[in-house]
Design a protein that fits this description.
Chain B: Pfam families: BPD_transp_1. The complex is a heterodimer. Chain A has helices spanning 40-47, 65-70, 89-99, 106-115, 131-144, 161-177, 189-195, 239-252, and strands spanning 2-10, 15-24, 29-33, 55-60, 74-77, 149-153, 181-186, 198-204, 217-224. Chain A is built from eight helices and nine strands. Chain B is elongated. Classes of the chains: A alpha/beta, B mainly alpha. The structure holds adenosine-5'-diphosphate and magnesium ion.
Chain lengths: 256, 251
């Protein structure tokens, strides 16, 4: 579904990402984990066509990202909820679909808010919603768009840990229902393990050594997560989970 | 700041009471100290002027209002259009924006004599002057507002390849509204000043011209009567802008 080859991205004075090869299958849930500043956001934005790669190519379902954008096949969820403050929850959900020029489906938007646990808050403004609720609206907005690829950039990064775990369980429930291809960026190893079918570890060479800062991020390891689905909170306590987390942590800190 | 800021209509009771007290004091002073009417006429004398020749004040008020409305509409349209252009075309922004901001410190009244030389006395010249005065706060306010769209919101729209017009109307403009209205409120105040100045220098009718003529004849009562008509015009226009703002923003 997503194919990236020899991808690298440089900004004016920083090389953010280098030598990325990536394949994500249809319906697969891939998590990307790494320390901040290692190029995770850059990777996601490049896949989604918001950032031009310096070298290499990306395709989504065989097409360049721009084509996928026009067809509303890409659903972004950013760290910041990016809801419009003057619109209600349900208006925020329908808004993006309207902007994409697709047929409106207000009833579908309301149903989706109900399934994401926002029953009764459909007409609330973002200022009346908690951080977790706002992210639920942002996720509902991406799903309602009808995108088949969800690109999520630390969507729970600003939530407290308890809400974060709950949101993780919910995103999996939602994903079971509408089988989307997901690329989910996080800096939390447990979150990456809990959510993913596969977990990519991104790091820059100099990460352990701040003086060497400026080297681009690369995919340094890749793990298949052998945890049965469906997963819920009980997974957090399991031994397999702990072992997987330890393996990913090891890769992050440079063990091989 | 966002469109979230609800604009309350001020409670009118206290200000009205203040006005009544002020007029009463004025009256008391003129009576108690027997002030000669050519220095300070009593409120009754001013009222008598208004009632004695309502047509004079009405026709001049209509002239002044016409200049404000036509000039204001032209200035707002030009200012808004230029703000949209300047914020859409980066090259234009870098070339023009500093001058638009700097031009705000230039007293526009100094331009009126120049207009007189180029365009002569007349309604059109006065309208042009009002438009000029209104133009600057509108262009600066709107441009500032339109630059305020968070990048993340633009990214969101780019991710679905939303067309520029939709992006403008649904995201950029709503984000800009508080600044647009801040500019409009300045503009509405300046438009009244602009119209009066224009009627002193660039035209021979309207309340401004009436005040100037009355001043030459030392008719303070006529001047005050004209001011009494000008005041509600200015307040009404300002209130109109406030009402518009309330209608398009939310609480
Ligand atoms: N728009 C940009 N312009 C210049 N440098 C950028 C830009 N975006 C990110 N960077 C730099 O690229 C590197 C990777 O950033 P980012 O992709 O945001 O990492 P992450 O999401 O993992 O924290 C950082 O050094 C960051 O400072
Ligand atoms: Mg990031």
């Amino acid at each position: 579904m997503i194919h990236a080859e020899n991808l690298s991205v440089s900004y004016d004075d920083v090389d953010a990402l280098a030598d990325v090869d990536l394949d994500v299958d249809e319906g697969e849930f891939v998590t990307v984990v790494g320390p901040s500043g290692c190029g995770k956001t850059t990777l996601l934005r490049t896949i989604g066509g918001l950032q031009e790669p310096t070298t290499g190519t990306v395709t989504v379902d065989g097409d360049p990202p721009e084509v996928a954008q026009s067809a509303a096949r890409l659903g972004f969820v950013f760290q910041d909820h990016t809801l419009l403050p003057w619109k209600s929850a349900v208006e925020n959900v329908t808004f993006l679909r309207r902007m994409a020029g697709k047929d409106p489906d207000p009833a579908g938007a309301r149903d989706l808010l109900t399934t994401t646990g926002l029953d009764g808050f459909e007409d609330a403004r973002p200022s009346e919603l908690s951080g977790g609720m706002k992210q639920r609206v942002a996720i509902a907005r991406a799903v309602h768009l009808g995108a088949d690829v969800l690109l999520m950039d630390e969507p729970f990064g600003e939530l407290d840990e308890i809400t974060r775990d709950e949101m993780g369980v919910e995103i999996l429930r939602l994903w079971r229902k509408n089988r989307k291809t997901v690329v989910f960026v996080t800096h939390s190893v447990p979150e990456a393990v809990f959510l993913g079918d596969r977990c990519l570890v991104v790091a820059a060479d100099g990460d352990a050594d701040p003086a060497a800062n400026g080297s681009p991020g690369r995919i340094v390891a890749e793990f298949d997560i052998d945890l049965s689905r469906p997963r819920d909170e009980s997974v957090f306590g399991s031994e397999t989970f702990g072992a997987q987390v330890a393996r990913v942590r090891g890769a992050l800190h440079g063990d091989t | 700041m966002s469109v979230a800021d609800r604009v309350p209509l001020p409670d009118a009771t206290l200000p009205l009471a203040g006005l009544v007290v002020a007029v009463a004091c004025w009256w008391a002073v003129t009576v108690a100290f027997a002030v000669p009417p050519f220095l300070l006429p009593s409120p009754a004398a001013v009222l008598a002027r208004l009632v004695g020749n309502p047509e004079l004040y009405l026709t001049n008020a209509v002239e002044t209002l016409r200049k404000i409305l036509v000039g204001g509409a032209a200035g707002v349209t030009a200012g808004f259009t230029l703000a949209v252009l300047v914020t859409t075309i980066p090259l234009l922004r870098r070339a023009l924006y500093p001058y638009l901001v700097a031009a705000r410190v230039l007293p526009k009244i100094a331009v009126a004599p120049v207009f007189l030389i180029y365009f002569g006395v007349g309604f059109e010249t006065a309208v042009l002057f009002v438009a000029l005065v209104v133009f600057f706060p509108v262009v600066v306010g709107t441009a500032a507002g339109l630059s305020r769209t968070p990048d993340a919101h633009l990214d969101l729209l780019r991710s679905v390849d939303a067309d520029p017009l939709r992006t403008f109307l649904s995201v950029r403009l709503p984000h800009a509204l508080p600044d647009v209205f801040a500019g409009l409120k300045q503009a509405v105040t300046l438009s009244v000043v602009g119209a009066v100045v224009a009627e002193w220098i660039l035209s021979n009718d309207g309340l401004g011209a009436l005040i100037l003529a009355a001043s030459e004849n030392v008719q303070v009562d006529v001047m005050l009567a004209a001011l009494a008509v000008l005041l509600p015009i200015g307040l009404g226009l300002y209130g109109g802008v406030l009402l518009c703002q309330r209608a398009v923003t939310w609480g």
